[in-house]
C-alpha cells in the first residue's frame, strides 16, 4: 500500500526504523526538518549528557579555583574543557540524518573537535613541562596510562575525521572515505569513554588525594550521566546495522 506521498508504507516504516536511536523513537533523537541544529544538543536523552559533562567540568573547575593556582592547575582545566567540547561535538552531530543536516552538523562537529584538540594539546604540553624537572616520574598511575592512550586516540580520531572530509582521495575517493565513516563514529564513542575513565582515574592521583580532594563518587556519577545521555541516541543504521521488525528498541 502506498502512502499519501506515493511512497510504499513498508519503505517508510523501514526508513523510520533505520533512523531510530538505540533507545526511544525516531523523533526522540532525530533532527526534524527545519529545526535549528542547536536543539540537537538538548533533544532525546541529551539533557542527561549535558548535566553530566557540565557537572564534571564544574567539579574540576570548582576544585581548581578554590585552591591556590599553580602552573599544573591549567592541565585539568584544559583537559576537562576539551572533553566538554568533544561531548558537544557528538551531541550536535548525532541527530542529523538528511544530507543538508549532515553537512552542517559535520562542519560544527569538526570545529568543536578542533577546539577540543587544541585544548587537550595545551593540557598535554603543561603536563610534559611539569614532569620535566628531576624527580617527576612519568606513568606512575592508571590516570597517566589512560591519559596517554586518550591523547593518542584523540589525535588519530581528529586526523582521520578531517582527512576523510577534506581529502577523501587519501582513502581512494569519496565513496571509500564514506565507508570508513562508521568506524570513525564508533571509535569516537570509545575514545569518549576512555576520556571519562581518565578523569575518573585522576581522582586517585596524589594531586587530587592530597590537594584538591575531589570526591571519586561525584566524578563517576557525572561520567555515568554523560554515557546515559549519549549512548541511547546512537542510531545503529549509521553503523550499517538495521533493526529487525520484531526487535526491541533496547536490543
From TrEMBL:
Q: How does it sit in the membrane?
A: Multi-pass membrane protein
State the superkingdom: Eukaryota
Q: Name one GO molecular function term.
A: metal ion binding
Task: Enumerate the cofactors the protein uses.
Answer: heme b
Query: Does the record's keyword annotation contain Ion transport?
Result: no
Which InterPro entries is this protein grouped with? Answer: CYB561D1/2 (IPR045150), Cyt_b561/ferric_Rdtase_TM (IPR006593)
Q: Which Gene3D superfamilies match?
A: 1.20.120.1770
Q: Which residues form the Cytochrome b561 domain?
A: 39-240
Q: Give the CC-aspect GO terms.
A: membrane
Is the Electron transport keyword given for this protein? yes
Transmembrane portions of the chain: 39-61, 67-86, 107-127, 147-167, 188-205, 211-231
Where is it localised? Answer: Membrane
Q: Which SMART domains match?
A: B561 (SM00665)
Could you tell me which residues belong to the region Disordered? Answer: 1-27
Keyword set, alphabetical order = Electron transport, Heme, Iron, Membrane, Metal-binding, Transmembrane, Transmembrane helix, Transport
Q: What is this protein called?
A: Cytochrome b561 domain-containing protein
Q: What is the lineage of its organism?
A: Eukaryota, Fungi, Dikarya, Ascomycota, Pezizomycotina
